[in-house]
Amino acid sequence: MAQYETIRVESDGPLTTITLNRPERLNAMPPQMADEIGQVFYDLDGARCVLITGEGKGFCSGADLSARDASAKGGSHEALTRHYNPAISQILRAEMPVICAVNGPAAGVGCSLALAADFTIAGRSAYFLQAFVNIGLVPDGGSTWMLTRAIGRARATRMMMLGEKISALQAEEWGLIYRCVDDDLLMDEARALAEKLANGPTLALRHIKRNIAGALDGAADTVMLAEAEAQRIAGASADAREGGAAFLEKRKAVFKGA
User: Fold this and answer.
1) Nearest C-alpha neighbor of 30 from the set 79, 73, 93, 75
2) Would you say 2 and 39 are in contact if contact means Cβ atoms under 8 Å apart?
3) How many C-beta neighbours within 10 Å does residue 93 have?
4) What is the DSSP track for 180-216?
5) Which of 7, 94, 167, 218 could be disulfide-bonded to 222 (CB atoms 3.0-4.6 Å)?
6) Among 184, 5, 20, 6, residue whose Cα is nearest residue 110
């Protein structure tokens, strides 16, 4: 696996963990970090689940264009189109489940990163913030698309036009995230979920993720056809045979990811 400067990547069997590693800046994300996050998804070999978290007291406090490299000198537009947006897209399109464990602020593109995951678990002291309006800018990194679909127009408008902090507990109540837990339980809960998914029926999970994405924009008939095709593929897998055998034998299934 490649060497990274702004993140730490650890693999434990089928689980890969990405840790944003600029704690002195609350993991503010320069273009290089966005590129490195995206690169991990190209480098994954045998990973069946990815867990993303932040080092220190913050998940990600937003973009850090003060540290932008030569390729981002065109300003925010170029930084978004060449660095940040591709990283978010990689997470949204990932073949395996992605979990974000949010430990502290998730602001700006950090909020986008957190919400791009399939499961977002947040510590009780964490919060989600779209503060762009406070400095005369607009939300980016896919936040407009993700927030509107996750919590509806009224709440998305509130977050983006008023620039209010949304606590982890409120985010859970709104359905913005999967779960809010006590800070000291965050990583244990996230890892337990990650290990469950990493050892789940990988092919079925992949197609569930694709069909959920298609359901956001597709017509019912189109989604049902996609479900039927996915069921045909999953039903022919070794994991499906194992799942059926385990059910009949009244034992826990052992999925191999094939």
Assistant:
1) 79
2) yes
3) 12
4) EE-GGGHHHHHHHHHHHHHTS-HHHHHHHHHHHHHHH
5) 218
6) 20
Q: Which residue has the tokens 């799942």?
A: 243
Which residues, 6+ apart, have CB-to-CB distance to 194 below 8 Å? 15, 17, 49, 51, 99
Nearest to 144 by CA among 159, 164, 163: 159
Q: What is the rounded distance in angstroms from the CA atom of residue 165 to the CA atom of residue 126?
A: 10
Q: How many residues does the chain have?
A: 258
> Would you put residue 134 in left (φ > 0), alpha (ψ -120 to 50) or beta?
alpha
**Checking DSSP bridges between strand 127-129 and strand 165-167, what pairing results, if any?**
antiparallel
Measured CA distances, 15 to 2, 18, 53, 123 (Å): 17, 10, 13, 21
pLDDT given at position 235: 83
The set of residues, in sequence order, having a beta carbon less than 8 Å from that of 224 and lying 6+ positions away, is: none
Tell me: domain 7-198, CATH 3.90.226.10, correct? yes
The closest alpha carbon to 197, from 13, 7, 9, belongs to 13
Question: Could you tell me the maximum CA-CA distance found in the chain, to the nearest angstrom?
Answer: 62
Residue 95 has pLDDT above 70, yes or no: yes
The pair of structure tokens assigned to 67 is: 């540290």
Burial 102-136 (b: 16+ CB within 10 A, else e): bbbbbbbbbbbbbbbbbbbbbbbebbbbbbbeeee
DSSP run (H or E) holding 129: strand 127-129
Q: Which two tokens stand for residue 121?
A: 């678990």
pLDDT tens, position by position, 134-163: 988 899 999 999 999 999 999 999 999 999
